[in-house]
Amino acid sequence: MTASTLSRHLPAKLQRAFAGLGVGTAQFGNMGRVTPERDCLDAVDTAWELGLRFFDTAPHYGLGVSEQRLGKALRGRSPEDYVISTKVGRLLAPNPSPQGSDEVNGFHVTDELMRVRDYTAEGVRQSLTASLERLGMTSVDILWIHDPEEPSDRFEEALAGAVPELDRLREQGVISAWGVGSKDAAMLKRFVDQASPDLIMLAGRYTLLEQEQVGLMSTCLERNVGVVAVGVFNSGLLARDEPPADAWYEYGQAPQSVIARARELAAVAHAHAVSLPAAALAFPWRHPAVVNVMAGMRSPEQVTRNHALASSNIPDAFWGELKARGLLEETS
Question: Which of 63, 153, 177, 212 is deepest in the core (most CB within 10 A)?
């Protein structure tokens, strides 16, 4: 883990927290399967012991359950000692037709609430107020515009509504920074080109498996927009030393071509005695625009494992062979 020089434009508190692995908490909202609350609380305790200080959540994650659990886990710790981010764009409202479960959206929670897309200025204010109540906090450090490409392009709504409101909140010191989180690199580039985010959260598009091709990373570097890299295991495809035949990618069965590429990466890693997951965590740090790499964690064991992987040394020869084989297209 090497802090980017680009992070120097960020507040000192963010710089300190970004220097370590970021802790994603979608799993705290029972993403994919039920996670006992005790595991979530213990995961934060373990992260704290290991010096990790950047925690990310969202209303979307378990219809507010992730925010509630993360707030509980951080209670009693000074806000000056950690950085917390949450997201706007999905308001939570009473569900008039609950079916009993939110599993259709990937979360094993009851569905008394529903998500309502809102990227207006008023939506930002309502979302922040509700998030602070769920977290049991008086402030957060970073707000992200969450998935403005889904289910349809909401760029114009966000540009006219959310962006000026986030600028105002930043200017007034209510938040330290704001950004946009998405897996759509082209959408993120539009925000960098036309607005003034401090950060972008890029999911799965600048990883060992694939590198975005729309010029997002170079544009972020030019404009002093820090990149928080998430989804670096590409839906778990790179989370094991040997990618399995039934691996997932983009929320579904991975195509054979994608599995084949992952296995080529694994073969090179094996030849250099490198852990594939460790290489996946290390890769984004190589780009000077990256200010943090974040991994989702649902238990103390996952925190300990990810921290150890992120602390691994990856030899230059490994990166060199990937480039020589055409498996890596790094851009600056």
Answer: 63
How many CA atoms within 13 Å lie on the side-chain side of 203? 17
* Alpha-carbon 306 to chain mean position: 15
Report field, pTM of the whole predicted structure over 0.85: yes
Bridge partners, residue 151, by sequence: none
* DSSP result, 73-122: HHTTS-GGG-EEEEEESEEEEE-SS--S--GGGTB-S--SEEEEE--SHH
Q: Where are the alpha helices (DSSP H) in the chain?
A: 12-18, 37-49, 65-74, 121-135, 155-157, 163-171, 185-194, 216-222, 256-271, 276-282, 300-310, 316-324
d(CA 141, CA 85): 6
pLDDT of residue 221: 95
Residues 278-311: pLDDT tens digits? 999 999 999 999 999 999 999 999 999 999 999 9
113-117/199-203 β-pairing: unpaired
The 3-state DSSP class for residue 249 equals strand
- Residue 61 known to be catalytic: yes
Among 15, 13, 21, 17, smallest CA distance to 43 is for 21
**Which one of the listed residues 61, 82, 206, 249 is annotated catalytic?**
61
pLDDT tens-digit profile of 123-160? Answer: 999 999 999 999 999 999 999 999 999 888 999 999 99
Q: Which helix (H) or strand (E) holds 296?
A: strand 290-296
CA distance 39 to 143: 26
CA distance linking residue 63 with residue 31, whole number of Å: 10
Token code pair at residue 274: 């490198």
The full length of the chain comes to 332
